[in-house]
Amino acid sequence: xxxPDHSDRMDKIMxxxxxxDKKLTKLDEVITSINKINSAVRSLNKKTESLDTKVKKQxxxxxxxxxxxxxxxxxxxxxxxPDRNQNLIVKANFGYTLPxxxxxxxxxxxxxxxxxxxxxxxxxxDMVKSVYIGKYNYGNNKPWYDHDCRRSHSxxxxxLKYVRKNNYNKVQLWEYHEARKCHSDIIKNKRRGYFxxxxxxxxxxxxxxxxxxxxxxxxSRKSNENPINVESWHNFYFEVMPxxxxxxxxxxxxxxxxxxxDAEITFSELEYVIKSLQTNKAPxxxxxxxxxxxxxxxxxxxxLLSLFNSVFTSGLTPKIWSxxxxxxxxxxxxxxxxxxxxxxxxxxxxxxxxxxLLAIIQTKLSRPGGKLCxxxxxxARAFDSLNHNRMWRKLDAFGxxxxxxxxxxxxxxxxIVKIRVGKVYTNPIVHAVNKYTxxxxx
Length: 442
Known about the structure:
Elements: H1 4-74, E1 77-79, H2 87-97, H3 107-124, E2 128-130, H4 147-165, H5 170-203, H6 208-215, H7 230-240, E3 243-244, E4 248-249, H8 259-262, H9 267-275, H10 290-294, H11 298-314, H12 328-334, H13 350-365, H14 388-398, H15 402-413, E5 416-417, E6 420-421, E7 424-425, E8 429-430, E9 432-433, E10 439-440
Helix pairs in contact: 2-3, 3-11, 4-5, 14-15
C-alpha cells in the first residue's frame, strides 16, 4: 500500500504536467500564429517586389521613350554592326526582317522609306546603339559600369529603403550589407575585366586603329568649353553663305547627251562604292553608319540601287543628300582638266603638288646662281562664293550631259548647313536670296 504522502506527491506532479501541457498548447498556438504572420509578411514582400519590378519597368520604358524622343529630335540614332563572326547571322536575320515598300514614290519619299526600312530591320536585329542627348545623368559614367552594375546598385538602394521603413530590422539590415558586398564585388570584377581587355588590346592589337584607340584612352584631356554659342554660329554663317541667284536657267538649255555619263548605275558599281566606304566615320543626319552598309544584304542594296537610278533618271535628289561622285572616269578619259590641277582629284592629292613644288625648287636652286620666284594665291572663301549658274554653264561647255547637270543642280539647290555645337544643332542655314531676278534664255 502507498502512503498518503506519496499519493499527494503524484497528484501534484500530475497537476504540474497538465499545466505544462496547457502551456505547450498555448505555445503551439503562438507559433502557428507567428508562422501565419511570417507567411503574410512574405506574401506582402513578394507583392512589393513585384510592384517594384513593375515600377522599374515603367521607369525604364519612360527613359527609353525620353531617349527616343531626344534621338528623333536630334537625329542621334546610330546603327552599328556586331562582331565579324556574327555577320552571317546578322545578314540572315536582316534579310528576313526587311519589310516591303512601294517603288512608285517620289525621291524624297523613297529615300525616307528606305531609311525607315533600315531602322526597323536594325531594331529587330539589335543593331541600334542609343546615344543620350542633353544634360541627363543615368548613373556612373565609367566605361565598365554596365547594366549589371546599375541593377546591383538599384538592389542596394531598395534594400536600404526597406531597412529604413522597418526601423533597421536585423534581418533586413544583414541583407542590405550583403547586397552592398555583392555590388562591390561586381564593380571590382567589371573594372578588372575592362582593364584586362585594354591590356590585351595594347599587347596584341589586331590593327593599328585598335592600338591607338586604346592608347588614347590613357591620355589626359583638358575639357575646353566652346565660348561661341549656337546663335553666333548661325548668324555668322548666314552672312557668309553666298546669295542664291534668282537667274532662271531653263532645263532644256542643257541638252547634251553622253552615253557614258547617262548610263544607269549598275549593281557592281554600287558594290564597289560600298566596299570603298571608310569605317569609323560619323554618320549623317539619317544616323546610318558606313559599317552598316558594308554588312547590308543584296536585297537592301537592290532597293538602294533603285533609289539612285530614280534620282538619276528624274534629275531630282532628296533634300538630305549632299554628295555624289560620278564624274571621275569621264573627265579622266576625256582629259577635261589640265595636268597641273590636283588636290581635289582622285589619286592626285596635295602630296603630288608638294612633290612637284619640291622638284622645281631643287631643279632651280641646284644650278649656280639659281633663283626661284613663287607666288601663292589663296582666295578667301573661294568655294563658298562660287556662282552656281556659271558653274552649270561651264560644265555644259566642257561637254557634261544635261542629265548629270540637272542632278548636280538639284543637289546644290537644296543645300543647307547645320552647325553642331557640342550636342546641339543650329537651325538650317539656307542660302540668302538676291534682290534682283534675271532671266536667261539660251
